[in-house]
Amino acid sequence: MDNQSRWEEKLKIRSKILTGATLAALTAFSAQAADTIKIGFIDPLSGPFAATGTNGLAQFKYAVEELVNKKGGVLGGKNFEIVPYDNKISPKESLVQLKRAIGEGVQYIAQGNSSGVANALTDAIKKHNKRNPDNRVLFLNYSAVDPALTNAKCNYWHFRFDANADIKMNALTDVIKTKESIKKVYLIGQDYSFGKAVAAAAVKFLGEKRPDITIVGNELHPIGKVKDFTPYATKIRASGADAVITGNWGADMVGLGKAIGETGLDVPIYTYYAANDGITKTIGASGKNKIRLVHEGPLNPPSTDAYTTYHKGFKAKNPEKDISQFRIANAIQMLAAAMEKSGSEKPIDVAAALEGMEFTSLHGEKLVMRADDHQLIQPIHVSVHTDENITFDSDNSGFGMRTESTVAAADTALPTTCKMRRPK
Hints:
Elements: H1 3-34, E1 36-43, H2 50-67, E2 79-86, H3 91-103, E3 108-111, H4 115-131, E4 138-141, E5 158-160, H5 165-176, E6 184-190, H6 193-209, E7 214-221, H7 230-238, E8 243-246, H8 251-263, E9 269-271, H9 279-283, E10 291-295, H10 305-317, H11 327-342, H12 347-354, E11 358-360, E12 366-370, E13 375-377, E14 380-386, E15 400-407, H13 409-412
Parallel strand pairs: 1-2, 1-3, 3-4, 4-5, 6-7, 6-8, 8-9, 9-10
Antiparallel strand pairs: 10-14, 11-12, 12-13, 14-15
Helix pairs in contact: 2-11, 3-4, 5-6, 7-8, 11-12
C-alpha cells in the first residue's frame, strides 16, 4: 500500500470514529432533551424592573427543583427546566422572545410582570396555536392581573394563577368599607392596562360599598419612567386624602413608597405589590401599620409546617431574595398534577386536565381553576407592613407582612363574562 492509500485509509477510519462519536453525542443529547419539559420564563431580567423578574426566576427554579424534579419528575421521570428569556418589560420584545422560545422547543410559557405583556402574549399564543395545531403552546400567567384576560380576552390556552385586579380590589374595599374614618381616597397607578383596571375597580367597588367616600384624585403616571415621586406624594398629601390605593409594583412602588415616607403622609396605603424586591426595605419604619397588601398565600403567621420548610429552604439557597409570589409554587405543582392526570405533556391534554382542577396548596388552602375562564379561585388575604410578630421578613429588613383579614375562596369568585372557545 503506497503512502497515498495509507493516508486515505486513515482518513476513513478517523471519519468513522468521529461520526460514531457525533451520533453518540446527539443520541445522548436527544435522550436528555426528551427527559426534560421546558418552561419558558418571559419577564424582565434587565432594566428598572429586573429585581422583580430575577426574583420571580429564582422562585420558579426553586419550585421546579423542590416540588417536581427532586420527587422524581413527571410522567415516569421527566424533569422540568426553566428557560429564561429577558423581555425588558416590552410587549414587542416579549413577542420576539416567544418566537425564539417556540423555536427552541418550549411548549409552556410563564409570564407575570405587566398585563400589557400578558395581553400581547395571549393574543400571539392563541394565533400560533390556531395555525400550528401540532405545536401548541400553553400560557401560565402567574401575576398579570388585568381582568380582561379572563373576561373579554379569555382563551383556552391561557391560565391565570393570581387573583385578578377586580378580585383583589373587592377584598381591599371590604376592608376599607369598615373604616368609618376614611372619607377621601386618592387613586394612583401606572398608565397601562393594569393600572387602569385597578382604578376602575376602585371606583366601582367604593361606589357600591361606601358611596359616601369621595375620590379626591385618580391619577396615572408613565410606567417605569418616573425618577422622583415626590411631586405625586406632595399632591396626595395636599388633597386631604384619608387613604391611598395603588397598584404600583417594582421600581414604581419603591419610588412611590419612598416619597410617601419622606413627605410624612400618615394615612393607610392599600396596595397590590408593596412588599419584597427592595420595596419593604425602602419603606421600612415609615410604613409600619400603614401599608396594607392584598395577596394570596398567608405568610405571617406561617400556615403549615410544609410551607415553613419550603420558605426556609428557599432562603437558604437565595439569602438575598424572598418568596414574594407564592402562586409560582401553585402554578408548578398544578402543572405537574395536570400532566400526571392526563398522562401527557401535550398542551392540549394538560389544558383539559387543568380546567376545573381542585388542588390543595402548601398553605393547606383549597384552590380551584375555574373552567369557565381559567381563573384560579383561592382565598385572598390582606396584611399589614410591620416588624411585630414576624416569622418571615422581607428584604432582610426586619419588616414583613402580617395577615389581618382573609376572604374565603368562595367569596372571591366574581362572575366572568368569558365566552370560552375550546379546540375541537
